[in-house]
User: Fold these one by one.
Assistant:
Number 1:
Amino acid sequence: MTFTVTADGPLEPGRTLARYHLWGEDPATPVGTNSVCRVLRAADRLHAYEVTWHGGPDHTRLEVAVHGADGDDILSAVRREVSQLFGLDAATSSDRSTACGRRCRHRPSRCWWARSAPSR
């Protein structure tokens, strides 16, 4: 089964997944040019899935293929893990833009423009 996940803001999957290459290749999470493979343990079984991405940073589309998925509970568990893997659930729309109105790729608490903007 396959499904698509879209990011609400800018997303650069290659940079997001760069942490898996920090100390060498991670055999549990092989990252390709436009894909990453993982295994999820759910319902006492292992479910392999592959995420491929398309589009630029402002219009990234993640396509997820779950091999051997047999229910909605498996798909929702994979969707939850993909969101965590790519940091989609950590950043809300308010985190993606700063107080001064500039588009920002990180949290306003870490952005110089957001910290220096006067409070409203």
Number 2:
Amino acid sequence: MRRILRIVSSRKLAIVLLVLTIILSLVGTTVLDEDQLGEYAKSWWFISVIIFLLTATVVCTVQRVIGVIDRKGLNEKPSNNFDSKIITNKDIFAGFSTLDIELRKYKYQTTFKKDNSNTFLIKGIKGQFGFWGSIIFHISFLVIGFGVIFSLAFKFSGDFMLVEGQTFNDYQAGYQNTETGIFYKSNHGQYQLNFKNFEPRVSNNKKIQSAEEYSEDYISTVAIIDNYQTVKEVQLGVNQKVKYKGFTINPDYYGHGYAPKLKITRIRGDSGENLAQETVVDSYLVLNTDLHRSYDEIAEVMSEVTYGDEVELPDLNWKLKVNFFPSKPKDGEKIVEASPFAKDSFLSIEITDLESQKVVYQGVVDLKKAVEIGSYKLEFTEVENWQRFLVRKDRGQGIVYLGFFIGIVGLILRFTQHQRMVLGLIQVEDGQTVIYLKEILENKSLQKPQLDEVLTSLGGD
């Protein structure tokens, strides 16, 4: 049992486990994608490393605290290994009192012990905050470790997409992607979020210099609804968030783009009867945003940013490929500039028959315009912005931040407050009072000895 305790309490083991945890975390965050990272963090072997690290830290911390308590005792006698010796004509009680007064004059906190009528032990300590700083720093690892385990066990994260004007209901099935802790219990249905408006923070006349600049600055206006009442309405910029009932909600930095609305109606049936008002499709098409220049062969234009997607429409037996262009190129040019504003928008559309794999339509459709494709009419009715929102509920995160704060406090105390200790033994030898003194410095490279000053005050050498 003692051997196991020695192994677990080894600082070398704690350092190895800490380095291993850092390496595993770096590998996970740099090599794996988001879905794989969630499974990686919940794997039994990763959690085992965290638990072993936490256990080793607990044992080291407990032993460190016990060491502090032991050092507060008076079990160490300096008579066999002293720095200085003073012979005084005072009796033993006067000699003890004089040493106690001198140590207190130099801001030492003193404790004493009387072995017998001929022996006194006295200890003076100052700079104890620095010594406790080491303990506080060790405790911070415990707090951080507990926060990490708590987070892995109970956290929730997810995301959803909304088009301007749409409302999201907080139910787990409504999220596109979710990641939950091992012991997370669903507690949804807490709120609704209405995506009111998306507005770029650039001038309408400003020329966007790069595709990345398109995504750099914007405001998403959202309203939090609870029990059919709007409880708060906020404007969220890049890296800004809103908190409600333990959930943290923020817009995804690059997760936004355009959502053109398509309406497809049947204009005649197979028998020739008029079915012009039968609406088959009337919905927004959320397009992927690709911040790279590309050439569209159908529209014969080059676009600074690509907005496009492919979607299958089984009821129509179609595969629809759409590219969106927020504005038309200038006269005589073939380049559609990157712009966060939709003006004179148009679509490049390619429709393929799912059975024959033949292209049944290729062409360009302007906003508010329609084209006929066989027995159907396709209309580009409007365009809105879409935004992806990230949701997180992680009480362990606050514990981890608290652990880091405690660690910083411990480090500040550890490196700004250095402990020093003076051990004194006062005893009678051959009828004379003899004082033995020993000075212990925590960091000899940063501390200057003060024992000489105490000796001078006592009249010794």
Number 3:
Amino acid sequence: MTLMPRRYPTIGSLSNAIRGPEFALNCDDAVCNNNDYARAVFDDAAAPGPLGSVAAKEAKRICRACPIIAECRAYALRNAEPWGVWGGMTLAERERAIVQIQVARSEASLRRRLAQIEQDADRDLDLEAVSA
């Protein structure tokens, strides 16, 4: 079993959006791990400019046929991988997804807090009515 440990620093506060227990990704069945062409494409996908853009599109095409695309994407999002295509997503796409996760969690937290405030207010009104 080939394990790929987290090797790079996180991308600032974005990683806090989905921080969980660190985990390794088993890459034995990954298409990009078992194919020289795919490895070359994924290396080029991290390059700036037109080469990186074309290679990223090809890397995403390769990802679509990968049996571990979901696990790869989860790994990249949880560990805020700062380069290349992972799980069919470029760095920019992963950053946008992490921000969306942060926003959704913030909104859910706010809704829970507002519901608690409403429950507390209702309870206080009920207590006032009983004591009056």
Number 4:
Amino acid sequence: MKIDNFLRSRELKTVIATLVVVIVIFGIFKAGMIVGYHKAFVSYRWKGSDFADGGKGSWKGRFMHEVYDKDFIGAHGVFGKIVKIDPATLTIKNRLGEERVILIDTTTVIKRFQKQIQLNDLAIDDPITVIGDPDDVGQIKAKFITFMPRRGGDTRGR
């Protein structure tokens, strides 16, 4: 009878609720660790690749208080000017002078404002924003590219 009373007791329900809360908190913490690891892994692979800084890498051996978010690349997107156009890739230089390779396929959407345009409508030095998924070597598999018109009234694509 004591076991039956214990199984119905308020104390058991409190212990079970506490364990569930602790498990959920640990799950959220683990998800944050996975995201952080992925971001660091992509940045590390990118910084050591032949595309970043001519293959020299740019980790500068700073103390922890000197490390800023700029040391991690934006894995899922980039903004910059086009420096090279190939049938399946774009190379973009961001404001820090780093070049990123953008992979383009048939599912990539390219727009200028609300109008969809084609890859051949883009030109060298056009400013664009890219959103996509990173691969293991720091390239972005583009899902969405937006052409950002220059100041002064660029009228291409109207």
